[in-house]
Amino acid sequence: MTPQSENMPSTGQAAPQAGWKQAPKRPRTSGGTNSTPLTDTGNRTEANANMAAMQATLKRLEAELLKEKKARQDLQRDMESHPAQQEQATDEDAQAQVARMEEELTQERLANAELQKTLDDMVKSGGTSTDAEGPTIPRPKGSAGTHFSIQVTMKLASSEEKDLKYKAIQRGIRFLALNANINWKLTWSKIPALAKANLYSAAREKHKYLKRFENDWATEELAKMYFKNLRGNHYRRGYLQVPDGYSHLKANSAQRNQSAPRIKRAKAVMLKRQEARARKAASRRQQTAEEEPGMEDSDDPNPIGQESEEMQVDGEDNNEPDQGPNAEGDEDNDSGSEE
């Protein structure tokens, strides 16, 4: 029979007795002491921090979204509550512009009627002629107002009667241009050719003298000048926006010498002609006085049959109407050439 000690394992430990339960073994750490692991606790803390940050970001985004939504609702509410006011303001602006145009048209009609009556009276008295008979007048080279004067080239600047005739034609073309419903906001090159042709035909029918100008260049230049001055007036008052291509013209105008004389070429020609006539008349009076010494004692400063042209010069200087911004000549160059 083998002894019990021989059947026991040689582990250096006592074998458990029969009927005893062995306690479970605990894991050992590298330090040799028993401890609880911290990995799960650190992960849980980091996850909680990330969750809190995400919730804070979500709340902030929700607040911004609600704020933007409220702003849009307020804007939509304002737009829905003010359409009538916006339409009323637009209608008032349109009505004001139409009223201004009607007022300008009425003024042009009255001024044209007055000048036409004066011109008709002069024609009846034999002072001037309005027929189309005479040589054809070609268009000069260059641009009007810079290289030549329209009135001088039309041969309507040498006397007061011709000056009145020019003003009547000028205002007549303005009246016809407004009645032709031409879009004056466009430059002349962009206006349809049919509208121009209708204007030329109406101008030749109204003023026979315009038939003498080759290819209706006088009518074209007068209409261009009127539309150009009309646009310039609206630019200055803010009714129209200045095109980008013409923004430099204001700076060019500011650099000019404002104290320089700005007399119209047509007026200069008229004064020169009148001075020549006055000198000639004075020479004739002096020659007559030398031939007839007895007339020096006369109370009449003008001999019989002699007409004082100096008085005509002074009278014209005092009575010449002011054309304002529509005057032709150097005054048209304030806004530069648009065509």
From TrEMBL:
<feature type="compositionally biased region" description="Polar residues">
    <location>
        <begin position="1"/>
        <end position="14"/>
    </location>
</feature>
<feature type="compositionally biased region" description="Acidic residues">
    <location>
        <begin position="289"/>
        <end position="300"/>
    </location>
</feature>
<feature type="compositionally biased region" description="Acidic residues">
    <location>
        <begin position="307"/>
        <end position="320"/>
    </location>
</feature>
<protein>
    <submittedName>
        <fullName>Uncharacterized protein</fullName>
    </submittedName>
</protein>
<feature type="region of interest" description="Disordered">
    <location>
        <begin position="1"/>
        <end position="55"/>
    </location>
</feature>
<feature type="region of interest" description="Disordered">
    <location>
        <begin position="69"/>
        <end position="91"/>
    </location>
</feature>
<feature type="compositionally biased region" description="Basic and acidic residues">
    <location>
        <begin position="69"/>
        <end position="81"/>
    </location>
</feature>
<feature type="compositionally biased region" description="Acidic residues">
    <location>
        <begin position="328"/>
        <end position="339"/>
    </location>
</feature>
<feature type="region of interest" description="Disordered">
    <location>
        <begin position="124"/>
        <end position="145"/>
    </location>
</feature>
<feature type="compositionally biased region" description="Polar residues">
    <location>
        <begin position="30"/>
        <end position="48"/>
    </location>
</feature>
<feature type="region of interest" description="Disordered">
    <location>
        <begin position="252"/>
        <end position="339"/>
    </location>
</feature>
